[in-house]
Amino acid sequence: MLANDQRPSQKATQVFGETQLRNAFHAVRDSKDWKNPIAQVIDPEVWPVAMVRAAVEFYTATTITVEPIQNSQRVLVTAPGYRNGPAW
Fold this sequence. Notes:
The protein is of the alpha+beta class. It has helices at residues 8-15, 18-28, 49-60, and strands spanning 38-42, 65-68, 75-79. It has one domain (7-84): Endonuclease I-creI, CATH 3.10.28. Helix 1 packs antiparallel against helix 3 and helix 2 (18-28) packs across helix 3. Residues 1-8 have low confidence and may be disordered.
């Protein structure tokens, strides 16, 4: 078990507010089941990658992978999701 000061959720809420994290997570989560793996295309100008990364860590305890989409400003964000992460 991680010490309180090492938990991603505590670090994330120091940088971003809980409302920001919730909104960013809702932008990338699976709409049918939030515990499923994540695979979502986002516009980093709307959803900054640092905020999405913090949100996914906050809610799933997993780390995102970000892949640029060719000929686009958008990126593909993927993550194992809560069910496939260490918190499950």
